[in-house]
Amino acid sequence: MDLYSEYSAALDEGRYQDWADCFSTHAEYRLTTKENHERGLPIAIIYCDGKGMIDDRAFTTSETTISQPRALRHIVSGIKVCADGDGYRVRADFLILQTMLDRMTEIVMSGCYIDRVVVDADRFLFESRVCVTDTLLYPTSVVAPV
């Protein structure tokens, strides 16, 4: 639960380097559609292979993205954990809400996380995170990680 709370808080507070620090050295991060995931297609909206690409996404999101101010809220529930060798397979549902100054709060995205979590020293980290969204339609503002 600590890893999932830390991850969500980092994104909600715009601390993208802290988000990147939730991943192991050889981590993979993907944002994909339910349809692509179910068909086993590797096509992803965001794809990072390794910590270097994840760090680059964090830097790019925080330093070069220009968008209207917004507040995001990640809600994670239904976490299911299964031991898997030296790590854990974890599945969780997510809902992302967005509030902009001139609009009511709206649902931006829903879906599930399909993760592999490992222990590195005294800390849990994502070795793989696949964010599977329920929709094929995305807001144009999907530049930040999910």
UniProtKB/TrEMBL annotation:
<keyword id="KW-0223">Dioxygenase</keyword>
<feature type="domain" description="SnoaL-like">
    <location>
        <begin position="2"/>
        <end position="129"/>
    </location>
</feature>
<dbReference type="InterPro" id="IPR032710">
    <property type="entry name" value="NTF2-like_dom_sf"/>
</dbReference>
<dbReference type="InterPro" id="IPR037401">
    <property type="entry name" value="SnoaL-like"/>
</dbReference>
<protein>
    <submittedName>
        <fullName>Aromatic-ring-hydroxylating dioxygenase subunit beta</fullName>
    </submittedName>
</protein>
<dbReference type="Pfam" id="PF13577">
    <property type="entry name" value="SnoaL_4"/>
</dbReference>
<keyword id="KW-0560">Oxidoreductase</keyword>
<dbReference type="GO" id="GO:0051213">
    <property type="term" value="F:dioxygenase activity"/>
</dbReference>
